[in-house]
Automatic annotation (TrEMBL):
Protein name as catalogued: ACYPI010111 protein
Annotated GO biological process: 7-methylguanosine mRNA capping
UniProt GO molecular function: mRNA guanylyltransferase activity
Tree of life domain: Eukaryota
Organism, as annotated: Acyrthosiphon pisum
Length: 132
């Protein structure tokens, strides 16, 4: 059997020990997807965790990238741009997003109670054409 996972990427370079796959603090109690869009253009959601975390999360509590797309499809909406504001790449693969036909952009933010800096706001304004 080859060393490629179901996204076609070599798993050996992405393999992590079970101990290094920690669920983000307060992730379990955070709502998965906001009930209202922002400026009729943006859908906010907690960081999805891909299949690597499945053995740490009960089935009913799981929230992965595919679920974000499924949620939007249920409203007959598609996602054209995924803006990742996390400061890490360990929670899911950008290739999973791109494989869904969605553009992916990463703007790393510190998070955990810190406000985004001016560069983050500028990048979002340029990327989205919105004035925040």
């Amino acid at each position: 059997m080859s060393g490629f996972n179901h996204y076609g990427h070599n798993g050996s370079s992405q393999r992590q020990s079970n101990n290094s796959l920690q669920i983000p603090k307060n992730w379990m109690n955070c709502p998965s997807i906001a009930t209202h869009s922002v400026a009729d253009s943006f859908v906010t959601f907690k960081t999805p965790l891909d299949y690597k975390y499945d053995n740490k999360i009960a089935i009913m509590k799981r929230f992965n990238p595919q679920m974000v797309f499924s949620h939007m499809y249920s409203y007959q909406q598609s996602i054209g741009l995924w803006i990742d504001l996390t400061n890490t790449t360990r929670y899911y693969s950008q290739f999973e997003i791109e494989d869904m036909g969605c553009a992916y952009v990463k703007i790393p933010c510190v998070g955990h109670g810190d406000l985004p800096n001016r560069q983050v706001f500028t990048a979002l304004m340029v990327l989205t054409g919105q004035d925040f």
